[in-house]
Specification:
The chain has 395 residues and is mainly alpha-helical. It is 68% helix and 0% strand. The longest helix is centred in the last third of the chain and has 34 residues, at 329-362. This is Peptidoglycan/LPS O-acetylase OafA/YrhL.
């Protein structure tokens, strides 16, 4: 007989903390081409990250599916009505849209200003369809020819698509009422992107701007199935919690193996995703590391860092490049780029994200609370997708 469902313990600190470290990986992916250009000796370190570390994004999707299901399983067990659904969407939007609009406004102003003096800023996009898709969060729904404006927004757009389907997805996941059903559901969900891209290709364009929805939807559902497993069975989650560190090490090893074999590191996700399940048990050394004050703060500002780091790298590269920082000065250039990432993210968090979120949420009454909504509100990750800061891999 299965054990009774696990009761919510509120905030799962390690699921907040891991967001910051995943964001560091995303930043490293996009910093890689600039760092290699400034200091060619860093190529052995940055090239594998540049080409294979995009798997951090997919773990973000798993994490998001896990905490959204934890927070809203009671709300969307059946259709809650348009009012509750609208408040849910508004709450999700408030987490990133203020920073998104602020960064987009800066980019548009910079592009127009540069064109006025006969210059062109990379990844500018056009002022028509490209800009409209950014504003309406549809740039990650597929069919695009390239990443434009603030490229990483494609992943927020893809996750927004998942949010729009929550009234359909949640009841489906809640039908999984046994351990076996949840495990099978998890494997099928992971198979959605793996099978799809095995057929149409794992190339950068396909998995980012041409057809990214199988990637987002599949791994989001995988996370939802893991959370449902927590509710219907205690043995497997408890077992995973006892081996959180080994699971993380095994997942990293599979990523390294995939990169060595020159196959998509996305194939490692069925194992890597189990880290989310294990961390949900809140035990072990890895949980303690991810629950420190520094880790938690990194998780809190991860959205702002994610939305500002690529525009900063692109803009700063006009001044910080091999011509202006030749030879050993390139190390200083890399340091300045990294400091700028942190400063821009912190400023966006303090000056835009938090005030913007408070303002948006003040405009509507809070949505009806699910029994474990506090988990979702404090650990939900919308960060999500690396976009190459140069002409290299855009994953």
């Amino acid at each position: 007989m299965n054990a009774p469902p696990k009761k919510s313990k509120g905030l799962i600190r390690s699921l907040v903390g891991i967001r910051g470290y995943l964001s560091i990986v995303v930043v490293a992916v996009h910093l890689a081409p600039f760092a290699i250009a400034l200091v060619p000796l860093t190529a052995p370190f940055f090239l594998p990250i540049w080409h294979h570390a995009y798997v951090a994004l997919d773990l973000f999707f798993v994490l998001s599916g896990f905490v959204i299901t934890a927070g809203y399983r009671g709300v969307f067990a059946r259709w809650p009505g348009w009012g509750a659904f609208g408040k849910f969407l508004w709450a999700r939007l408030s987490r990133f849209y203020p920073v998104h609009l602020a960064v987009l406004a800066v980019l548009v102003g910079a592009v127009l200003g540069a064109r006025a003096i006969g210059r062109e800023i990379p990844h500018g996009g056009d002022l028509g369809i490209d800009l409209l898709r950014q504003i309406t969060l549809t740039s990650g729904w597929g069919g695009a020819d390239a990443l434009t404006w603030n490229g990483p927004v494609w992943s927020l757009s893809a996750e927004w698509f998942c949010y729009l389907l929550i009234p359909l997805l949640q009841p489906l996941v809640l039908l999984l009422r046994t351990r076996t059903a949840c495990v099978l559901g998890y494997l099928v969900a992971c198979a959605i992107p793996l099978v799809a891209y095995s057929v149409i290709g794992f190339d950068d364009g396909t998995i980012t701007y041409a057809m990214p929805l199988p990637r987002a939807l599949g791994f989001f559902l995988a996370g939802a199935c893991l959370q449902q497993l927590v509710q219907v069975d205690r043995r497997l989650p408890a077992l995973a919690g006892r081996f959180t560190g080994p699971i993380a090490v095994l997942g990293f090893g599979l990523i390294v193996l995939a990169s060595t074999l020159e196959v998509s590191t996305m194939y490692a996700l069925p194992v890597v995703g189990l880290t989310v399940l294990a961390l949900g048990e809140e035990r072990g050394w890895l949980d303690r590391v991810l629950s420190t004050r520094a880790s938690l703060y990194g998780g809190e500002i991860s959205v702002a860092i994610f939305l500002t780091h690529v525009p900063w790298l692109l803009g700063a590269s006009l001044l910080i490049n091999p011509r202006t920082f030749p030879g050993h000065w390139g190390w200083l250039g890399i340091a300045l780029l990294l400091v700028g990432v942190g400063v821009c993210g912190w400023l966006a968090f303090v000056l835009v994200e938090k005030p913007g979120q408070r303002f948006m949420r003040s405009l509507v009454k809070r949505p009806a609370k699910a029994p474990t909504q506090s988990v979702e509100e404090k650990t939900e990750a919308v960060v999500e997708a690396p976009e190459s800061a140069s002409s290299g891999p855009r994953r």
